[in-house]
Amino acid sequence: MSGIGVTLRTLHDDERDLEQDLLAAAERHRVEHEFHHIATDVARWSREHATRLAALGRDHGLDLSGPRDHPSPGALAALREKASQALGRRPETGLLLLHDLRDLHLAAVRNSLHWEMLAQAAQATRDERLLELVSACHPQTLRQMRWTNTMIKVLSPQLLVSA
Amino acid sequence: MDSSTDRIARPWGARTPYAPGTPWPARTDLHLADGVREEDVERWVRSASLLHSNGDAMDIAVRGGRIVGVRGRAADRVNRGRLGPKDLYGWQANHSPDRLTRPLVREDGRLVESDWDTAMDRIASRTRTLLDERGPGAVGFYTTGQLFLEEYYTLAVLAHAGVRTNHLDGNTRLCTATAAEALKESFGSDGQPGSYEDIDHADTIALFGHNAAETQTVLWMRMLDRLEGSDPPRLLCVDPRYTPVARRADVHLAPRPGTNVALLNALLHEIIRTGRIDHDYIGAHTVGFDELVSRVEACTPTWAAEICDVPAAQIERAAELLGGARRLLSTVLQGVYQSHQASAAAVQVNNLHLIRGMLGRPGCGLLQMNGQPTAENTRECGANGDLPGFRNWQNDQHVAELAEIWNVEPDDIPHYGPPTHAMQMFRYAEQGSLGMLWISGTNPAVSLPELARIRSVLAQERLFVVVQDLFLTETAQLADVVLPAGTWGEKTGTFTNADRTVHLSEKAVEPPGEARADLDIFLDFAARMDFRDKDGAPLIGWRDPQGAFAAWQRCSAGRPCDYTGLSYEKLRTTGSGIQWPCTEDAPDGTARLYTDGIAYAHPDRCESYGKDMVTGATVTPVEYRSLNPEGKAVIKAAEYLPPHEDRSPGYPLQLITGRTVYHFHTRTKTGRAPELNAAAPDVWAEISPAEAAAQGLSDGDLVQVATPRGAIRARLRTTAIRDGVVFVPFHYGYWDTPQGYRPPDDGPGRAANETTITDWDPLSKQPLFKTAAARMTLVARRGTGHATDTDGTGTEGSTA
User: Fold this and answer.
1) What is the ipTM of this complex?
2) What's the domain range around B511?
3) Is residue B715 within 8 Å of residue B728, measured between CB atoms?
4) Which of A78, B36, B406, B499 is deepest in the core (most CB within 10 A)?
5) Domain A3-162's class?
6) Cβ–Cβ under 8 Å, residues B611 and B308
């Protein structure tokens, strides 16, 4: 497999994971309302990225599956949500939220670097379709990074100091 | 003089038609208590309305030490003598027998009468303990849009530089935060661009989610008088309800709730497609136009028609009306601000004016409206948590300037992050890191979303709640200390309306019992806490309203909201209120901002560098400087996102809540004015006749409106509203029910917010009261006996 192929596959898998991680964190922190809603919104971007990467991957001879099916709001989700509500009154959950935000941020950074690699490779090979994909998707990854960073900045003083 | 007509039946009174470009004729409205004639009035005391955001100037009639009526001020630019129903009747609440007259403290679980020393000492000692043990992050202040400028500024100084907490906000978060945010996003700073006089000149008026007929009755009178005069303006109304505004509109769009961005993007698409744009203006005064063009390229009327459920041809007609306007005035209110993607949508209205070059000229106006009378002051004084004077917390120079004015070190002013908004403060209280919440002049136990949650947060043992109010509100009943406050007519101060008009409101009568002006309460707290500046002098050196005003003037100098050219004396002797900025160079005030380009968006001057239109992530100074080095207006495009809570088989309706013409906020005053209370004594729910028929319901039935959060019971009114939407007025709570502050144990309540969702706009942090999924079921048929008992109100006449 070419270097571009390997990178496409890695990024595709990571975007798939990031969507799932965002949705799982959104459920886990259902009582953190802003986090819950925005995490769900920006998960949509990762889903779209995985879909588009899978489509483009076919041109590069890759068999990428695209995003996962959405889990039905089954037992696990309901359990996470219940746990979230029960724990929502305890200060320790604040720390858990900060750690989730950190992990989501790092995952987005990792994706951003892969987008960067693909952008450079696309320019070097004059692969316009790839460049177009990167131009459409990479800004959204950067927005995921800025968002997680902003949330950490806003919440840390309260959750680390006053709790 | 218009004093004879029943202004409950005719909220807007008689017409005084006028032609474009001519002054709005005066009409003096008057209402006096039964048996009092004008010549019986001993004193007329200058004031303005405190029951909505319009700022209608009036004189308070006093006889024998009591308020006996009100009269509009014909010379004033805002209302030319007119008053709305709430102005005419609402003053009676001042003399209500159930006003709080003594401080209350909680003893063994019950609130008991106390004295000021005991109450204030408890507050000061709890504040000190929390500061020592947990730091300033444990203390929060939640104020209102109904105090005076002098009070907000004092509160802002004591919170920012005394307690040094970041947790300070007003209930303006619920009504006007999106207006401020949209202006910051587009123009770099808060500050209303337009003027009410734009109504006199406009050839087209567009009201976006703004039911002016009910929320600002006098503003609507002005529009009605233009409509009745020669060469009337054309009207566009965007509202899912067939409001009085919609009835007069040339084009009425009733989009599905939560789809404003899709609709506005389609309107912008059409205006760009048909070339109705001002290239010179765009080039000279804006950045970001290209991004808008590409963002809305695919947003055709057909695309939006699908999302908004509005015929594409109607969208095209609306775009034609907007595109053909030569003098366009737009107004925006809660239909945008409290709905999904609030800021993103409000910003698109700004974009409409920017790409059409319709700003800063007579008739070319933009009014991002306020909901409350003094919300403008909450914003400019920083009682909403922002730094006072529209200063930028990310700009060290601005912080240093403020530190110099207050004579403190810059690091004494928390500026390491954005201020904590109200909803987040309640979250911190829920999660346990906030130990004290001081609530002044607002009633979150009725006005915030998801009330069962709010009650449970306020009722926590570990949270020390202070409530400062006129009455034992639902919130006050959950407090640890209750402070009786004086109100409008009982204290002196200034306040500023939605078009930047500053009025002086003077004390007419004494507050009841031991009640004190809010300013005196804040000053008492500051003295007990002994807040000092860096040289050891008192942090707050003023003792009275005029002193606070002078301190604020110094703080406002050189900022967009410059008050340096104003004084109490000038406001007393000038016939009319005066619009800020008012300076030595502009002694008569300023009608319109941005008459000569964009003034406050420069990176060194702007209040905000902006936020991401989806996530709310803050833009860094470096990014802003490279995007907008010359300080032009920023055209920010936004993508449409589906609402966070949509209809489902279990909840097939969309719920929206709103204000109605006879009431304000949580009815603390209007529910105690006999005429206003009688006009709308109890909650109701509206759906369309077709929707009612489909569900086998009819007018007057007692229905239950339920969402995943909770339920209320209300009488059904079928009205002209979109199919699939239910409307509930948000005013009704429990203070006039047997339970006092909550629904009965065995059933649903009547506060609309039992049902609303906890979700807020990621930019403005304004809660979304107009995007929830709901279902409606029958409880009892019209005319059957259950009603008054099951809805718990005990009020008669609320049944069919």
Assistant:
1) 0.92
2) 104-175+374-561
3) no
4) B499
5) mainly alpha
6) no
